């Protein structure tokens, strides 16, 4: 069966949910193999095998961990040239997209970014549904040259357990000096909010100018659902919420199972970051707000009444 590479997204050995989603997609297409770069492959192996990774190609070297993405691309390209996988799946985050582009050039292959679905097609081809123009359209796309390299957005598949007798396969590869690129001289850990990562979360609750700067109702509602908290640019520009939480054309793009917009009007630039969400709910006191054009469920009301009432119901259930 054709081998499908999946680049493991992990933070200090903790495998992120996106990886399990990618392994689930890989199992549809062929035999999943994980690529694990950095320390902790042996600890991660059980999780990766649980989601179908038959093998875990691992490299733990300062040649990779001490640099930005260039050595990762070098490693994946070298492995792909040797083992000729049927496809390479990479998380569609900023680092992943840069790795994908570099691997595509090194292997003379086609690249698809921001895939939200990947399926086997006739004749062994792979068809993707791709979100383009900042989420304004979705198109069907196939790679027609080389190895399909596909960057897949978080929440594009529900992770399915598919136990495999996975094993770690250490790969010895020296990254040439010329391929290392930018070196990391200092790394600062981000302060944790205790909430899920915005781009990975299954549920996102976002607040806009309608909060008037008071995000307490948005946060309490998010916490009752185990959700991440996002914000519109108006809220970020006002200094009410950090820029890292901005959703939209000039912020992050999210595609959760459930997106709740509270006090957000639904400007085109905001939609660009959230309109591929599976279910969209809006709470807005203006029945004419444009956000209601794209919602699955809309509540016309004051967010400071609606959200606490919903939070109370969820907590009581
Ligand atoms: P508003 O448009 O002011 O809407 C506030 C809403 O809250 C209104 O609909 C109002 O009815 C409702 N409301 C008020 N009080 C309550 C209440 N108590 N309860 C319930 N509802 C209430 N925007 C982004 O979000 N992300 C981007 O990445 C982004 N990039 C941009 C890039 C460019 C180049 C430009 C020009 C703009 C960009 N914008 C972006 C800005 C965008 O055009 C809008 O200005 C912004 O999204 C508006 O934010 P908002 O919906 O929170 O505020």
From TrEMBL:
Keyword Methyltransferase set for record: no
Keyword annotations from UniProtKB, A to Z: Electron transport, FAD, Flavoprotein, Transport
PROSITE patterns xrefs: ETF_ALPHA
Highest taxon of the lineage: Bacteria
InterPro entries: DHS-like_NAD/FAD-binding_dom, ETF_a/b_N, ETF_a/FixB, ETF_asu_C, ETF_asu_C_CS, Rossmann-like_a/b/a_fold
Residue ranges constituting the Electron transfer flavoprotein alpha/beta-subunit N-terminal domain according to the UniProt record: 4-188
Cofactor(s) listed in the protein's UniProt record: FAD
Entry keyword annotation includes rRNA-binding: no
Pfam families for the chain: ETF (PF01012), ETF_alpha (PF00766)
Protein family: Belongs to the ETF alpha-subunit/FixB family.
Free-text function comment from the UniProt entry: The electron transfer flavoprotein serves as a specific electron acceptor for other dehydrogenases. It transfers the electrons to the main respiratory chain via ETF-ubiquinone oxidoreductase (ETF dehydrogenase).
Assembly notes: Heterodimer of an alpha and a beta subunit.
Name of this protein: Electron transfer flavoprotein subunit alpha/FixB family protein
């Amino acid at each position: 069966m054709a081998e499908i590479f999946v680049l493991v997204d992990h933070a200090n050995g903790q495998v992120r949910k996106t990886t399990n989603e990618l392994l689930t997609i890989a199992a549809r297409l062929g035999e999943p193999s994980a690529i694990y770069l950095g320390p902790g492959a042996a600890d991660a192996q059980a999780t990766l095998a649980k989601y179908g990774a038959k093998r875990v190609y691992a490299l733990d070297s300062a040649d990779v961990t001490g640099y930005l993405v260039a050595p990762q691309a070098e490693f994946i390209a070298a492995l792909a040239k040797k083992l000729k996988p049927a496809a390479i799946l990479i998380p569609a985050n900023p680092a992943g997209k840069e790795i994908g582009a570099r691997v595509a050039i090194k292997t003379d292959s086609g690249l698809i970014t921001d895939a939200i679905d990947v399926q086997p097609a006739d004749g062994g081809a792979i068809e993707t549904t791709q979100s383009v123009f900042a989420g304004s359209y979705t198109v069907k796309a196939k790679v027609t040259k080389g190895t399909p390299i596909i960057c897949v957005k978080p929440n594009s598949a529900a992770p399915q357990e598919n136990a495999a007798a996975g094993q770690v396969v250490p790969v010895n590869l020296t990254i040439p000096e010329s391929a290392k690129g930018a070196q990391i001289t200092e790394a600062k850990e981000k302060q944790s909010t205790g909430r899920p990562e915005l781009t990975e979360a299954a549920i996102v609750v976002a607040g806009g100018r309608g909060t008037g700067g008071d995000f307490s109702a948005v946060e309490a509602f998010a916490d009752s659902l185990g959700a991440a908290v996002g914000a519109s640019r108006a809220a970020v520009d006002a200094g009410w919420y950090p820029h890292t939480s901005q959703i939209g054309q000039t912020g992050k793009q999210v595609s959760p199972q459930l997106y709740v917009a509270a006090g957000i009007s639904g400007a085109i630039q905001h939609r660009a970051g959230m309109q591929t969400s599976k279910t969209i709910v809006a709470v807005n006191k203006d029945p004419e707000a444009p956000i209601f054009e794209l919602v699955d469920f809309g509540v016309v009301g004051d967010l400071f009444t609606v959200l606490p009432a919903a939070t109370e119901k969820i907590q009581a259930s």
